[in-house]
Structure formats: structure tokens, C-alpha cells
Amino acid sequence: MFKILVLCVIFEISAAAVCPGSTVTQALQDTILSTHNNFRSQLAKGLSVIKGGALASGAKNMYELTYDCDLEATAQTLANKCLGANTAGHSPESVLAATNTGENLYSSNTVQTTQALLIAGMNDWWGELVKYGGITPTDVKFTLTNFALGIGHWTQMAWGKTTTVGCAFKQCPSLNNQVMVVCHYRAR
Questions:
Q1: Following DSSP, what letter does each residue of 90-141 receive, concatenated?
Q2: What's the pTM?
Q3: Residue 40 phi/psi, 5° resolution?
Q4: pLDDT 10s digits, 131-166
Q5: What SS3 class is residue 108?
Q6: CB 3.0–4.6 Å: which of 41, 62, 103, 112 could bond 116 by disulfide?
Q7: Which region, left, alpha or beta, applies to residue 116 given φ > 0 means left and ψ of -120 to 50 means alpha?
Q8: How many domains does the chain have?
Q9: What are phi and psi of 181, to 5 degrees?
Q10: Which residues contact 103 (CB under 8 A, 6 or more apart)?
Q11: Which residues form the signal peptide (predicted)?
Q12: Which domain holds residue 59?
């Protein structure tokens, strides 16, 4: 009986959120990390498709991301505001710069699982590369000119020196029940 009780407690702990006060479970963290790191690996290997169908040149010195509970907490704070995924919904640039934090926002009112919603957001952000271009088959160097093309979300995911990510979500009645997804990034 005691062994069964211990197993139940262990199961409950493993199914619970990993970060304090979080709704992001270990399974969702794994999805966030594997999706980001798979895209980053494709880019590092020169397998990312750019606008026009060519492949981007391989990236150098790209780190594998790890999950960060502090970034998740700041992402949750923003998601809880339910401001939408437009420019007005972003954190002030001064705050992001002072904390060396990058930020992506996504929202959807499509009924789907949280995992599917997170994947849809990450696919949308990464899809900016093939939709808008910005880098070439011989140069993956990012400039402000590239940013103006509309690949800012992709850049947050692909930035070579980024080492950590934390994401959060919130259903927002004030936004017709859209679910806000926010991911924060930090570089070395």
C-alpha cells in the first residue's frame, strides 16, 4: 500500500507544472524546447527554406535552448494583460533591452489543445523566413534592414547566441476568448 501511495505522489508531481505557480507542464516545456531546437538545428545544418525556395546557409555557433522559469514568469505577466498579439501588446522596448530579453507574441481563437496552440505559434513565427525572406543562401547575418522585412519573430527563435526560452499562455475573454501565447528569450 505504501509503495502505491508513493507512486501516486510521484505521478502527481511529474504531471504538475515544473515552474512555481505555472500552468506550463513538463510536456509543454518539452514541446517548446523540441520545436525551437528542431528549427534551430535545421538552420544550423543549412536546411531552412528561405523565400524563393532556396536553402539558407548553415548557421555557426548556435546554442541549444534550455527552459527558463524566470522568462516564463515574465511571459506570463504579459500574457495575463491580454493586450493582443499586435505591436501594442509587446513589452516596452526599454524593458526588453534592460533585461536583454527578446519577445514573441501569438494569439488564436481556434479551439485546439494548448500543445497545438504553442506549435501553431512557433510554426507561424518560423514561417516568416520563407514568407518574407531576409537572409540569403550565402549569408544568415541579421541586420536592421532584415528586421524591417517582417522576420522579427523568426529572429527571436533563430538568434545564434540565444540560450534560454520561457513561454506562457492565457485565455483572454476581453479578446473574444483568444488565447495569448508569449515566449521570452535571453541570449548569453
A1: SPPHHHHHHTTEEEEEEEE-S---HHHHHHHHHHHHHTHHHHH--S-SS---
A2: 0.86
A3: -65, -40
A4: 998 888 887 777 777 777 888 899 899 998 999 999
A5: strand
A6: 112
A7: alpha
A8: 1
A9: -115, 130
A10: 75, 78, 90, 91, 96, 156, 182, 183, 184, 185
A11: 1-16
A12: 2-187
Answer for the pair 160, 63: CB distance below 8 angstroms, yes or no: yes
What are the DSSP calls for 133-185, one per residue?
--S-SS-----HHHHHTT-HHHHHHH-TTEEEEEEEEEEEGGGTTEEEEEEEE
**One-letter amino acid for residue 34 of the chain:** S
Which amino acid belongs to residue 97? A
Dihedral of alpha carbons 6, 8, 14, 16, sign: negative
- Residue ranges of the chain with per-residue pLDDT less than 70: 1-17, 87-89, 94
d(CA 124, CA 41) in angstroms, rounded, equals 17
Give the number of other Cβ atoms within 10 Å of residue 39's Cβ.
20
Chain-centroid distance, C-alpha 39: 11
Amino acid letter at 73?
A
- Pairwise CA distance, residues 93 & 95, whole Å: 5
